[in-house]
Amino acid sequence: MIVVTGAAGFIGSCLVSKLNSEGFNHIIVVDKFDNEEKNKNLEGKRILESIDRDDFFTWLDTVGEKVEFIFHLGARTDTTEFDKDLLSKMNTEYTKQIWEKCIQYQIPLVYASSAATYGLGEYGYDDNQENIPNLIPLNPYGESKNDFDKWAITQEQQPFFWAGLKFFNVYGPNEYHKGRMASVIMHAFNQIDKTGAMKLFRSHNPEFKDGEQMRDFVYVKDVVDVCYFLMHHRKDSAIYNLGSGKARTFLDLVKATFKAMDKKEEISFIDTPADIRDKYQYFTEANMAKLKSIGFTQEFTSLEDGVEDYVKNYLSTHSYY
């Protein structure tokens, strides 16, 4: 049995699909299952059992010996959430409980961290664990993720294999339910489809021209391939970056979206909202050397190829992965 928490969500549901495609059908999915739009992500997938996240630890105490692997992707992922107690409970404390159960039942663990832990990148985007205590996240969500990372690397008792993955800007199918927290590609597709044009945030930093703010965009299919690799690797426990390793501009992204939609480019700029302007990241890029050093040699999907696949095979037909 393989457990996926946050299984009805964006990355979780894509991971279930990847596991099914590789012949793994004894999947235990854990989530709240109270969002019908989100639950559509799991339709047609081969699942052994669905467990409410509030019942997960009770369930695990009855079958822990039979669980082969846990992917903990469930979290409160809204970066605009400012209830620190809620974030601590959902993101930090819940993950600590999973960690402790993995030690108790000898279960290997992969969990979701976040590139939000890097803040403005004062220490770069290098997944050197010595830097983790120094990082200054920009919001309570990033703090909750970094708090767990800081805790994990100081534990004397650890699961026999564990990996934390600092997801960068993940995009791809199964994010229809995410609303404003969906990827820029999905927002661009919807805006272009509706108006024929796309508005991007203007740069308020003299070092960057309008639209040339840069992010590390990583396709969700690559993300789940890394998860699958780690499920079989089961050594070199550590925290790893998970991006494409190549920063690209928002202009690159939007132009790729227009091209995939076969529409003429029409791009304009609007001011970045004042309330987020001073916390706006102008550049992120994952240093991927650490993951590659343990044997993950697969090339990451280019932004153009990822956007084309996402737009043509999913967004334009409202299909799921």
TrEMBL record:
UniProt binding sites for NADP(+): 10-11, 31-32, 38, 53, 73-77, 145, 170, 178
Domain of life: Bacteria
Pathway participation: Nucleotide-sugar biosynthesis; ADP-L-glycero-beta-D-manno-heptose biosynthesis; ADP-L-glycero-beta-D-manno-heptose from D-glycero-beta-D-manno-heptose 7-phosphate: step 4/4
Cofactor note: Binds 1 NADP(+) per subunit.
Domain NAD-dependent epimerase/dehydratase, chain residue ranges per copy: 2-243
Family matches, as NCBIfam families: heptose_epim (TIGR02197)
Sequence similarity: Belongs to the NAD(P)-dependent epimerase/dehydratase family. HldD subfamily.
Protein name: ADP-L-glycero-D-manno-heptose-6-epimerase
Species this chain originates from: Roseivirga seohaensis
Gene: hldD
